[in-house]
Automatic annotation (TrEMBL):
Name listed for the protein in its UniProt record: Diaminopimelate decarboxylase
Subunit structure: Homodimer.
Annotated signal peptide: none
Binding-site residues, pyridoxal 5'-phosphate: 267, 309-312, 414
Gene for this chain: lysA
Entry EC no(s): 4.1.1.20
Keyword Heme: no
Cofactor: pyridoxal 5'-phosphate
Domain Orn/DAP/Arg decarboxylase 2 C-terminal: 317-412
Residue positions where N6-(pyridoxal phosphate)lysine is found in the record: 74
Alphabetized InterPro entries for the sequence: Ala_racemase/Decarboxylase_C (IPR009006), DAP_deCOOHase_LysA (IPR002986), De-COase2_C (IPR022643), De-COase2_CS (IPR022657), De-COase2_N (IPR022644), De-COase2_pyr-phos_BS (IPR022653), Orn/DAP/Arg_de-COase (IPR000183), PLP-binding_barrel (IPR029066)
Orn/DAP/Arg decarboxylase 2 N-terminal domain boundaries: 50-315
PANTHER family hit by this protein: DIAMINOPIMELATE DECARBOXYLASE, GROUP IV DECARBOXYLASE
Organism: Corynebacterium mastitidis
Length: 456
């Protein structure tokens, strides 16, 4: 029974094309993970391209078309990823100047890019204007001024959204909840600053307000948060149309046509553990779109185009991190109880999420079948720090030993993106797999890469 569980690859947690062969070896898209480690070493991220792409398509289908879905690049971005997103017809969100530069380097059409950030630099804003970015999501009064100046200097009119903080407590970790009042993003709805910001933008000759934005948080499972936020932001849209519509050159209807975008951000929760279920995006989307139509009708507004910005739900489940097990140590904890420490060759440098958010993961041996008895185990990395824990507590088979390959699934979002060079570990490679072929998307960082930054 336990052996079955230890060898199964739950399909709601693992990439769509992960399989265990008859000899116990796990393949992704037909590529055996031990072969990847033999060729490229471990740890290594392995990304299932077809899985990533099919999640793009499901999101597009759920939200009425690919143009309504912006992939949130912060989850994981390379030029190849930007090309996949482009080929699937999705739009793209960037949250920094360099994310924008990577997208542009991939040839991603600037008009389908949206730019985010609470403290965008002058350079970032100018690049948005000069590069023809689809819209900038405004986050502060200073930024309204800075962007208006950049657009004026370029003789351009920059489309923008105003980011609204609708005052909702998303049920997620405090650091990844973003729509409540006491945090750095957006303009407060409750205090009236969102209305003031929108008014100001409408008066600016070099900015064109095309709608409103909000984002309730990340890894959200309570879909009520999305619809409540939508309702509040629509309320603001109504207020804005009533107040500013009569002064608009094309009247209230013209302004309503102009403010046609309601961007509800990202946050769609995924399963990291067998016992969890991912948010049913198709069902949530259908419900959300119906509610938005209903609220708009109640307010006498034309139904806006709902856009979303998922990152994790597209990138997360597509990827696993493969490690090699090294040291195995049985440690006395209490009452003569033992805990087995399984050390792997990566750790908090390739996945900071457990240490930072208390995020939970599970692991499977991917180089063979296991059939040991379950023991209390902790999977730790190789960094010089006791908080370097990947899996705090799990019942794992007692036959795992040095040389076994252990893979952690659902590491495609915010793992490589938040990786570090702690202890001068180079970042692992990212290997893309598709139709039986492996290709290096990002190579491993070497000590030569680290030394090359030193100038003396
Ligand atoms: N849109 C905006 C404005 C955001 O701030 C974010 C995430 C997203 C979209 C994408 O959210 P997603 O669909 O991926 O949940 N590092 C954390 C997550 C931080 C999310 C920040 N903003 C983690 O590892 O869980």
């Amino acid at each position: 029974m336990d052996a079955d569980r230890f060898n199964e690859l739950p399909s709601h947690v693992w990439p769509a094309h992960a399989r265990r062969q008859e000899d116990g070896v796990v393949t992704i898209a037909g590529v055996p993970l031990p072969e990847i480690v033999e060729e490229y070493g471990s740890p290594a991220f392995v990304i299932d391209e077809a899985d990533f792409r099919s999640r793009c398509r499901s999101m597009a289908e759920a939200f009425g078309g690919p143009g309504n879905v912006h992939y949130a690049a912060k989850a994981f971005l390379t030029r190849a990823v930007a090309r996949w997103v482009d080929e699937e017809g999705l739009s793209l969100d960037v949250a920094s100047e360099n994310e924008l530069r990577i997208a542009l380097a991939a040839g991603f059409p600037a008009g389908r890019i949206a730019a985010h950030g609470n403290n965008k630099s002058e350079g970032f804003l100018r690049l948005c204007v000069d590069g023809g970015v689809g819209h900038v999501v405004l986050d502060s009064f200073q930024e309204i001024e800075r962007l208006a100046r950049a657009a004026a200097d370029a003789g351009a009119i920059q489309p923008v959204l105003v980011r609204v903080k609708p005052g909702i407590e998303a049920h997620t970790h405090e650091f990844i909840a973003t729509a409540h009042e006491d945090q750095k993003f957006g303009f407060s709805l409750a205090s009236g600053s969102a209305l003031r910001a929108a008014r100001l933008v409408l008066e600016s000759p070099h900015l064109r307000l095309v709608g409103l934005h909000c984002h309730v948080g990340s890894q959200v499972f309570d879909a009520e948060g999305f619809s409540l936020a939508a309702e509040r932001v629509l309320g603001l849209l109504g207020e804005l149309l009533r107040e500013c519509g009569p002064r608009h050159p094309e009247g209230p209807e013209g302004l309503a046509r102009q403010l046609s975008t309601l961007d509800l951000g990202g946050g769609y929760g995924i399963a990291y553990l067998d016992e969890e279920s991912p948010l049913d995006v198709a069902a949530v989307a259908a419900d959300l779109l119906a509610k938005v139509r209903g609220h708009a009708e109640e307010l006498g507004l034309p139904a806006p185009t709902v856009t979303v910005e998922p990152g994790r739900a597209i990138a997360g489940p597509s990827t696993v991190t493969v490690y090699t097990v090294g040291t195995v140590k049985d440690v006395h904890v209490e009452d003569d109880r033992l805990r087995r420490y399984l050390s792997v060759d990566g750790g908090m440098s390739d996945n900071i999420r457990p240490a930072l958010y208390g995020a939970r993961y599970e692991a499977r041996v991917v180089s063979r079948f296991v059939d040991g008895a379950p023991v209390d185990s902790r999977v730790v990395g190789s960094h010089c720090e006791s908080g370097d824990i990947l899996i705090d507590s799990a019942r794992l088979p007692d036959d795992i030993g040095a040389g076994d390959l252990l893979a952690i699934p659902a590491t495609g979002a915010y793992c490589y993106a938040m990786s570090s060079r702690y202890n001068a570990f180079g970042r692992p490679p990212v290997i893309a797999v598709s139709s039986g072929k492996a290709s290096v998307m990002l190579r491993r960082e070497t000590v030569e890469d680290l030394l090359a930054l030193e100038q003396d």
